[in-house]
Amino acid sequence: MGVPSALDVPIPTYPVPRSPTPSPRPVIETESLSPPTDVITTRAQAIESTHPFIPPFFPQIYHKTMSALRILVPVKRVIDYAVKPRVNKAQTGVETAGVKHSMNPFDELSVEESVRIREGKKTPVEDICVISAGPTKAQDILRTAMAMGADRAIHVETKEGEDLEPLGVAKLLKAAAEQNKSNLVILGKQSIDDDAGQTGQMLAGLLGWAQATQASKVEFTGGDSVQVTREVDGGVETLKAKLPMVITTDLRLNEPRYASLPNIMKAKKKPLEKKTLADFGITGEKRLKTIKVTEPPPRQGGGKVEDVDGLVSKLKELGAL
Amino acid sequence: MLSAGARAFSALTRPRFTTASTTTLRSPAALRRLLSALAVLEQRDGKLNQGSLSAVTAAAKLGGPIHAFIAGSNVKAVAEEAAKVEGVEKIIAVENGAYDKGLPENYAPLLVENIKKGGYTHILASATAFGKNLMPRVSALLDSQQISDITAIESENTFVRPIYAGNAIATVESTDAIKIITVRGTAFAPAAVGSGSATVEDGVDPKAESTTEWVSEDLAKSDRPDLSTAEKVVSGGRGLKSKEEFDKIMLPLADSLGAAVGASRAAVDSGYADNSLQVGQTGKVVAPQLYLAVGISGAIQHLAGMKDSKVIAAINKDPEAPIFQVADVGLVGDLFEKVPELTKKLKSA
């Protein structure tokens, strides 16, 4: 049974050292920033608090003192959505060399939403931290996110071909959320490369936090309460939860802004922390082995007809009417 | 007549099954006995969600015994209906209104407890909003890497799934002891509710508290067939120009065919159609008998949601639109002229 591996994540220690470079935004000193007094002292306590079926110690501490949001926004560098991916000759994957990459579109929505929460001024936002695991080039999209308004970035460098599976990413993010004392994680509902749609839910499960997936509206309703409208089959449903929580974004949530040139210049000065998987107690181990990747069977266009009568008779001929 | 899903499934998998049959699917009976599958079913207001029965169809491909799981208030009636589903041996039912809305915060621990108790090796659910929301959380609690939206099963640990908006098809082998799987409905037709006679058994209920509270829902009501399972789908895009035109042009066309209405992302983003009608990589995936694309250029994200349709027809004024590369029959022309004409001819036919 796999459950114990939730314990592989190292026990967080307090106070967590902050990034050496100070955040460019004024840090609002609040109670929630001071290290909690009821620090875990024994291994047994730590195990209990990280056990997936028992809510971790975090929420309880935060519920007492919550006053500002510390948002963690995971972003992923993917092949640009407008590019038609090609399977490589060896059938081991998709050709990525020399192909345009950009931020996963759903992650742009996450960054945008975080920045809008700050601009909405209803709930004080203390920190918006973007994080990405990937090769050095992932730093480009972290800079983009900072140009959109994120305060700082963490880049977890992985080697070429050492890409993580959603479960690995979720474990990394759990450690990152704890180290950065995040109380809200906003992720895209899926990345457009592996189309898995898992990371947010897995993270919420590992942390024992509330989750609201496929969000089309996020509202702070006072205190730690968040009301989220989510896209479901056939319509929408509305949920209410208390921080800390995990939200995943759907297309209708917002329209991401373009980074302006001055903001792109400013983003170059914002702090970007470089980390490794080991810093989060993660290995690149994979549970799924890719046997092969192939092109889908091609579809042949059947040609055109002159008019509506032609359309109707062709459809009848094809047995579609 | 075969449903659209069944056809899509057989077309997709038949060749693969012939090759796979020589390998793991023919494992010794002793090994086979270790395999047991749990299909997670959905219910709403005491009615079984037929779409969730795709999980049973997929489970049947694995070859071991199949149990089905259902939870909610007044679950007995649903359990009895589920007991008639062909191929299911046992229904695990949990009676508790706390699970009615399928909130993953308490549903995931519930499922995990029942998985552990039953010692299942494969947990399957349809890739519906419910399945997509719940299963990854279950997966994390069991420390298993989920396999999302599979379109074929090659063996008990090897699965086929589309990636990159369906532009590539990946075959993956899972090394996890418990395999958590979501199933693409268009690739596995829902199992028939018929002559099955499963036993119904109470499941364990850990009664975990949900950290989220369900507030309300707003579901679109429509007399038209359900988009994901419809035999015919007519879909409108940006070419419709406004919500008024969308309703005026597309709805009569749909009704003349008895079709469900879909939309491209462009149409949804522009507010012409409801988001729940979106067909594509991040919306619904459909594979009907007939897919008629109106004013849709055919971006790869849209094609990802409909290219397994049996017959694709397109009406577009741009002869170079990529949709014509996949359409079995295309008509170049102004949709505001051609579609009403088509609707009229279909009605009089």
Automatic annotation (TrEMBL), chain A:
<feature type="region of interest" description="Disordered">
    <location>
        <begin position="1"/>
        <end position="34"/>
    </location>
</feature>
<dbReference type="InterPro" id="IPR014729">
    <property type="entry name" value="Rossmann-like_a/b/a_fold"/>
</dbReference>
<dbReference type="GO" id="GO:0009063">
    <property type="term" value="P:amino acid catabolic process"/>
</dbReference>
<protein>
    <recommendedName>
        <fullName>Probable electron transfer flavoprotein subunit beta</fullName>
    </recommendedName>
</protein>
<keyword id="KW-0813">Transport</keyword>
<dbReference type="GO" id="GO:0009055">
    <property type="term" value="F:electron transfer activity"/>
</dbReference>
<dbReference type="InterPro" id="IPR033948">
    <property type="entry name" value="ETF_beta_N"/>
</dbReference>
<keyword id="KW-0249">Electron transport</keyword>
<comment type="function">
    <text>The electron transfer flavoprotein serves as a specific electron acceptor for several dehydrogenases, including five acyl-CoA dehydrogenases, glutaryl-CoA and sarcosine dehydrogenase. It transfers the electrons to the main mitochondrial respiratory chain via ETF-ubiquinone oxidoreductase (ETF dehydrogenase).</text>
</comment>
<feature type="domain" description="Electron transfer flavoprotein alpha/beta-subunit N-terminal">
    <location>
        <begin position="91"/>
        <end position="284"/>
    </location>
</feature>
<comment type="similarity">
    <text>Belongs to the ETF beta-subunit/FixA family.</text>
</comment>
<dbReference type="InterPro" id="IPR000049">
    <property type="entry name" value="ET-Flavoprotein_bsu_CS"/>
</dbReference>
<dbReference type="InterPro" id="IPR014730">
    <property type="entry name" value="ETF_a/b_N"/>
</dbReference>
<dbReference type="InterPro" id="IPR012255">
    <property type="entry name" value="ETF_b"/>
</dbReference>
<feature type="compositionally biased region" description="Pro residues">
    <location>
        <begin position="12"/>
        <end position="25"/>
    </location>
</feature>
<dbReference type="GO" id="GO:0033539">
    <property type="term" value="P:fatty acid beta-oxidation using acyl-CoA dehydrogenase"/>
</dbReference>
<dbReference type="Pfam" id="PF01012">
    <property type="entry name" value="ETF"/>
</dbReference>
<dbReference type="GO" id="GO:0005759">
    <property type="term" value="C:mitochondrial matrix"/>
</dbReference>
From TrEMBL, chain B:
<feature type="binding site">
    <location>
        <position position="238"/>
    </location>
    <ligand>
        <name>FAD</name>
    </ligand>
</feature>
<dbReference type="InterPro" id="IPR029035">
    <property type="entry name" value="DHS-like_NAD/FAD-binding_dom"/>
</dbReference>
<dbReference type="InterPro" id="IPR014731">
    <property type="entry name" value="ETF_asu_C"/>
</dbReference>
<comment type="function">
    <text>The electron transfer flavoprotein serves as a specific electron acceptor for several dehydrogenases, including five acyl-CoA dehydrogenases, glutaryl-CoA and sarcosine dehydrogenase. It transfers the electrons to the main mitochondrial respiratory chain via ETF-ubiquinone oxidoreductase (ETF dehydrogenase).</text>
</comment>
<feature type="binding site">
    <location>
        <begin position="264"/>
        <end position="265"/>
    </location>
    <ligand>
        <name>FAD</name>
    </ligand>
</feature>
<comment type="subunit">
    <text>Heterodimer of an alpha and a beta subunit.</text>
</comment>
<protein>
    <recommendedName>
        <fullName>Probable electron transfer flavoprotein subunit alpha</fullName>
    </recommendedName>
</protein>
<feature type="binding site">
    <location>
        <position position="316"/>
    </location>
    <ligand>
        <name>FAD</name>
    </ligand>
</feature>
<feature type="domain" description="Electron transfer flavoprotein alpha/beta-subunit N-terminal">
    <location>
        <begin position="37"/>
        <end position="218"/>
    </location>
</feature>
<keyword id="KW-0285">Flavoprotein</keyword>
<feature type="binding site">
    <location>
        <begin position="278"/>
        <end position="282"/>
    </location>
    <ligand>
        <name>FAD</name>
    </ligand>
</feature>
<dbReference type="InterPro" id="IPR014729">
    <property type="entry name" value="Rossmann-like_a/b/a_fold"/>
</dbReference>
<dbReference type="Pfam" id="PF01012">
    <property type="entry name" value="ETF"/>
</dbReference>
<keyword id="KW-0274">FAD</keyword>
<dbReference type="InterPro" id="IPR001308">
    <property type="entry name" value="ETF_a/FixB"/>
</dbReference>
<dbReference type="InterPro" id="IPR033947">
    <property type="entry name" value="ETF_alpha_N"/>
</dbReference>
<dbReference type="InterPro" id="IPR014730">
    <property type="entry name" value="ETF_a/b_N"/>
</dbReference>
<keyword id="KW-0496">Mitochondrion</keyword>
<dbReference type="GO" id="GO:0033539">
    <property type="term" value="P:fatty acid beta-oxidation using acyl-CoA dehydrogenase"/>
</dbReference>
<feature type="binding site">
    <location>
        <begin position="295"/>
        <end position="302"/>
    </location>
    <ligand>
        <name>FAD</name>
    </ligand>
</feature>
<dbReference type="Pfam" id="PF00766">
    <property type="entry name" value="ETF_alpha"/>
</dbReference>
<keyword id="KW-0813">Transport</keyword>
